[in-house]
Design a protein that fits this description.
The structure is a homodimer of 352-residue chains. Chain A has 352 residues and is α+β, with helices and mostly antiparallel strands. Chain A is built from 10 helices and 11 strands.
């Protein structure tokens, strides 16, 4: 368990991330936007996608692999679609820009689909899918993952990433439904966590190059992740990769750069966002009341023996958000040491 | 193995379906459109969704549960979205109409999303996702399934269907990529087939009401299907159900009518289609060449021991289509007897 002293107020976290980026030459407004989104990832409990990634982003900036002052360009523009060139900027800034554009377009046309190329890792998928919620819109976000961990079904060469999807749907008085999932049984971050903790993985997460179950996470490099539902998850990863990558002229397949291992090669990461205006289909209040009813229907339905609670996608996220807004973001010792070291290196004040 | 005499030419099949519908009072043009789509389902090998369903559709028409002369109505209409009321018509006709509308809109705006309510079973998802291919568009189709077989994760009440998704993406010289999948490990049709054949199901398809594996398909009514990736597949089924059902004012959750068991209650089936104009993102030829390259990359990649071939989604569909166009559609004896009986009942010529 963490002590209270290990919890950091979100404003403190955001300020630290902001000054880290500014120290690397990022304009102040962009640094604040990036910090806001990264802190949000920690606030909603997606710890592997928040401040945890800061040292890696900074390393890439310092190595010249990420542009701190990108100029976004609209390469294609139709009434309900656009393609953005992210100019090798931080994925958070590219997708914030793309999502805002999608919402503006969707207000006029009912829906918009905006793709991005030449972007980078953007944190958790839910960040962007949830942006349209405040405007009474549904959000759908898909990305090409930042490293390949998945072969085609039956194969052994890791040509695919865990290509995630997030879908966010607003409710009236209940938490929004927020599905945020990789197309593999386990995300690669869970394997890394199991390795750090010296735990064994359940069968079904990974197999080795002979197709035999691999349960020792320290041997992860000898095998690969398994897709959900076998060929179905492979199909989803493939199709999502084409929609978020190939269609945008972004990297897919063998062209995907391992963001964790390589700090200099341009990743040309691709993502896409859909904003869908609920009002183009039905009265917003009626729709949201309908989502509340679905929530009740699922929650109150009978459970399997030993199951305490039926959860809806996004329910945990909302609980963690409320809790962390009140008590702060937990900061493990090891991560704090890394961030202190980073502050030292950048010549900025550490997290107090 | 089937004899050649068991294979029916697709034109013969289509003509039979057409006269069956006409005998029930459906206008000739609609009957031909419905027959064309149903025959197409058989041609691409989705045998459980083609002529196999004809007796059930006819039974529903005769019972007054399906409107043979629907008037489609545009309940909502924005530049890139619409909501169609299917007037309780056959799903094939409703979704044919909706998809054509989506393609017309997408040509102008880059993308369109058209939803439908008050529809019915429409056959396999791939039919509609593939319609935009000829116009160099990508298709995405989602439906609320026609019977609930899936509880929320951890639950025992079947509040969800196998809510399928299909995505179709054109290639240049290779088969189009066509993903057509239920959000459960096995579609319910596979359980029925296993029961007919007296086979045992693999663990992972179904569990009983205590969560224990259920492998005897004759006991299927004592359990329920499992979603792909556990909570992930549950999340997909939920979200797809909301997008294709709730958003359109169509049935979802407890409101879903079991189309197989009940021939009279209006199903209010919901579906949605996206048409996405590739040309709004990139040059169509460059894109299609990119899909060919992805095909080559996957196909030629190294395989697990014992795996003969890596397949792409849609490859089998294309192979079956070529084969059946040449040699006809196989018609099992039992189904032929049913169709002969139907012909007798309707006073029309049977399949020759």
């Amino acid at each position: 368990m963490l002590n209270n002293s290990d919890r950091i107020d979100s404003a403190t976290m955001k300020a630290f991330i902001t000054r880290s980026f500014i120290a690397c030459g990022m304009p102040g407004t962009d640094a604040r936007h990036a910090a806001q989104l990264m802190t949000r990832a920690d606030l909603v409990g997606q710890d592997g996608h928040g401040v945890f990634r800061l040292p890696m982003y900074i390393r890439r900036i310092q190595a010249g692999g990420l542009n701190v002052a990108p100029k976004f360009q609209k390469l294609q523009n139709r009434k309900a679609t656009a393609l953005i060139d992210g100019d090798n900027g931080l994925g958070h800034l590219v997708m914030r820009h793309a999502t805002k554009l999608a919402m503006r377009k969707a207000r006029k046309t009912g829906i918009a689909w905006v793709g991005a190329r030449n972007s980078n890792h953007a944190g958790p998928a839910s960040l962007y899918a949830m942006m349209p919620l405040k405007r009474d819109m549904i959000g759908v976000y898909i990305a090409v993952g930042s490293a390949n961990h998945l072969p085609p079904w039956g194969g052994t060469e890791m040509l695919l990433s865990t290509n995630p999807i997030a879908v966010a749907i607003p409710a009236a008085t209940r938490p929004p439904i927020v599905l945020d999932m990789a197309t593999t049984v386990a995300a690669y971050g869970k394997v890394k966590t199991a390795a750090q903790r010296g735990e064994t993985m359940p069968e079904g997460w990974m197999v080795d190059r002979n197709g035999a179950p691999l349960t020792d996470p320290s041997r992860a490099s000898e095998g690969f992740l398994l897709p959900i539902g076998g060929p179905k998850g492979y199909g989803l990863a493939l199709v999502f990769g084409i929609l978020a990558g190939t269609l945008n002229g972004a990297a897919f397949g063998r062209d995907v750069v391992d963001f964790n291992a390589d700090a200099t090669t341009i990743t040309n990461t691709g993502h896409m966002i859909i904003a869908l205006d609920i009002n183009a289909f039905t009265d917003v209040d009626i729709f949201k009341a309908g989502i509340d009813r679905i929530y009740e229907e699922m929650k109150s339905s009978p459970r399997l023996p030993g199951v305490e609670e039926i959860r809806l996608p996004g329910e945990r996220l909302q609980r963690v958000l409320s809790e962390r807004r009140a008590t702060g973001i937990p900061l493990p010792d090891q991560l704090r040491q890394q961030l202190d070291h980073l502050a030292d290196e950048l010549g900025i004040a550490p997290i107090q």
